[in-house]
What we know:
Elements: H1 6-28, H2 33-44, H3 57-68, H4 74-88, H5 102-107, H6 112-125, H7 140-159, H8 163-181, H9 185-193, H10 199-226
Amino acid sequence: MSNPSDEELAAVAQRRSQAYWLLARCFAEVPSASFFDELQHSLASDAATVAVDEPLAAESAALVTALLGVAKDEGAVQDLAMEFTRLFSGISKSYGGPPPFESVAREGAWGGDTVAAVVQAYADAGISPPLPEGAPPDHLGAELRFLALACYHEAQAWSGAERELALEWLDREQDFLDQHILPWVPGYCSALAALAHKPLYQALLALTPLACQNDRQDIDAILKAVAPSPDHG
């Protein structure tokens, strides 16, 4: 990325926001007919726009294809809802995987310093990400929604030619990925992928850690391109 304009950076941030929001929805929302109707409508016009030479093009296309390919019949949706519950609800060690909570993944039980740090990160950014129903703030869906909202605010800052504010949002995104996503999400998704039976969740669990790792690299590239000083290097 060489000398990008504010408009180009706003468009990049908006795309990043949309990607995080899609991933968050897949982790946070129990599949339903309305869920897939909404996602299929929003994705249909973009399904053929992933360039084959883009990073993670194959993984992204697999998730989009799985979402678009969900049958409309009630049985197919119910099967996916059961898979969602088995994978992400943490019902028991003998049925599915652990819940997608950062504190559980990193400390072995919910709560502690991890949850306090996540809540503080949200407060410092002035963001209250909508939580999955009944879920704690360190739910993966909530953390991905936080990044989606941070990227949205970054895009708004670039659009308003508020470069310093945009850089502040990039710094927050960078810190959150380093402190609260990358330390546990790759391992969590790898463990859950071995339990996933449906193409939708196989694609989701394959794409999510790679997308987060790739985004972290992209943030470094953006900061280097627009703020090569030690403060943002």
